[in-house]
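ingest -> validate -> predict -> emit
validate: passed (alphabet ok, no gaps, 439 aa)
predict: started
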Amino acid sequence: MHQSDEEIMDLDNNMDYDDMPYDPLQRRFADNLSMDEEDLDQYLSDQVNATLSDEELDDDAVNADLWEDSSIDDDDSMMYSRKQSQKMSGAGKLPRKKRAARSLSILAGILTLTTLCSLGLCLYMLITPYIKPTTSGSIIENGEDAPVFYSQEEVDILMEEAALAHEQELKNEIMNQLSSENPNLNDTLRWLYSDFVLYQDNGSYHFVPISDTIERNTLERGNLSVSENGEISYTSQNGTSARKGIDVSQHQGDIDWEQVAASGVELAIIRAGIRGYGTGALVTDEYFERNMEGAAANGIDIGVYFFTQAITVEEALEEAQYVLELIAPYDITYPIVIDVENPNASARANALTQAQRTEIVSAFCDAIAEAGYTPMIYGGVYSLFGMLDIEQINHYKIWFAFYNDYIYYPYQMQMWQYTDKGSIPGIEGAVDLNLWFLD
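emit:
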């Protein structure tokens, strides 16, 4: 049915544009052809007629028509073109209104998805410079201007180069130490294994891990000063310093205590006696009384030590009582020390286990403390870490013997015997020199 221009305009104003089908031919005219006003009116009239007539078709007719259109081979291409032209001009049938709306909805979905993808791409490009790498093999190194990112391969190369450089530096330091005058292998090993305490026993090296449960000493090597005659002094910036001391026995013979005091010695640890390492007998040092009186008369503070060879707790208590009786007449201001050493291979206490010896030494110290004096344990690296369990005795004061120009004991200690070859006016021959550290 042919409709006038006014009817077409009325129909156009009342149409739901969302339900109008997409016309590829209209797109083709718009893109490639030009129509005059009369042709355009005719084309619009044909389209309206086709749309109205399509409402009378049922689904089966439309589906049959669609299947007919899809079964066209190459030989029938010319006939197919003519049939398509007839359909486009209104002679054939178009899909009805609902199918056209579905096509338009699909197109709208595709356009929406495309828009979202474009928006996502723009956002990604904006934030990419601020995203850190998420791979486990990447590392960020903060520079002055911007972070620097390394791949796992680059990280592996850098680590390998650093390891090689450290290895070479270590080798150079070991070579320098061993090439120095009078090299000491033990010093090199102690420097190399600084997390352990090293000692030798029966030709073997022993490495004792440094405990995290015992308080470390805060003494700094840089605060030590060595004089021309080999004496060491210690003074720190926070006021910590050390008093000059000696320890003596009958081996020093007659001592001129006045000269000793004038040389700057402030304290003396005097041997009270020993237990024989063969017989087990208790013996008083021959010069004990003479040294005690001479030191006291010249204003030198006094402590005493006893060389132990106790093999039972009962013998340790016997030694403590023996010392307490010897020092009773004197004013003792410094500790009462138990000397733990291994004098030779046949010493009677050599068969003790570490646990047994620790128990014996602890019994001596506890008895001294109960009598009102300050107990102390004397020993070198082997005595304190090989013969005794340092974890069980660290609460007692420690007198550490280590003959060198640096402090090797890692924990808190009160006194350091740094040489047995010292020289002091008033004493003939060598004498042990010590530093008593002040808080």
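The chain has a mean pLDDT of 79.
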